[in-house]
Design brief:
50% helix; mainly alpha; globular
Length: 228
């Protein structure tokens, strides 16, 4: 169950959360990513992994706390993981999931975003494999995670890159608001974004929201084929 440890531009918090979920009981926990952990427990964990040092999830931490912390980090990004620029393409790709458009969109993501998405999909793939225990199949997982990776751009809100933990070697340069390729990571504050949790975002609704769910469901089901 490799977790892409050698991949660049992955925030320490994301790597720590995904690793803890896979090697622990997270991928076999009922309702993982659906059930929300108590805010106090998530806040304590956010404080524990804050400060720019390598993130470490203490043994015995509730998988629901870890999953909620991960979702809060994603919701705390200035730009969604699927990016504002590519969002219309992700939505239209849902109409023909077998056309190869989804795979092309994966390749079009900024490297930081693509690496984080791959880790998230890997965890979801293992959870789906244990759906008899978790009661979270690929559709349920997609429904739980879609709001965390795609939302509408707030009007006139300037795009700013979100800092990532690590030693800075893999830091991404800030992208301009014009191209909207804001990487998921940069140097210094992944844990801060997680601690702050969900920012005020404009959620997708109706057919657009369902389209992202369908795309994620397909990616979870095809994870081994795409990345294997």
């Amino acid at each position: 169950m490799a977790l892409c440890r050698g991949e660049p531009s992955v925030p320490q918090l994301v790597l720590a959360c995904c690793t803890a979920l896979v090697i622990g009981e997270g991928v076999r926990t009922e309702g993982i990513f659906k059930h929300v952990a108590p805010a106090e427990a998530v806040e304590r964990m956010s404080t524990c992994v804050a400060g720019g040092r390598p993130a470490l999830i203490p043994p015995g931490t509730s998988p629901h706390v870890i999953a909620t912390l991960l979702k809060n980090f994603l919701l705390g990004l200035e730009e969604p993981l699927l990016t504002y620029r590519l969002l219309p393409d992700w939505i239209t790709a849902a109409a023909d999931l077998d056309s190869g458009r989804v795979d092309a969109l994966l390749a079009a993501l900024p490297a930081a975003n693509a690496n984080v998405l791959r880790l998230l999909l890997e965890v979801a793939y293992y959870v789906n494999g244990n759906a008899a225990d978790t009661e979270m199949d690929s559709l349920a997982l997609a429904q739980a995670l879609a709001p965390c990776v795609a939302w509408l751009p707030p009007a006139l809100k300037p795009a700013r890159p979100v800092a990532a933990s690590g030693d800075g070697a893999d830091a991404q340069e800030p992208a301009s608001a014009a191209n909207a390729d804001v990487p998921a990571t940069a140097t210094g504050g992944a844990a801060v974004a997680a601690a702050e949790g969900a920012q005020k975002i404009v959620p997708l609704e109706g057919d657009e929201a369902q389209a992202v769910v369908l795309v994620l469901e397909s990616l979870i089901n095809r994870y081994a084929h795409i990345f294997g």
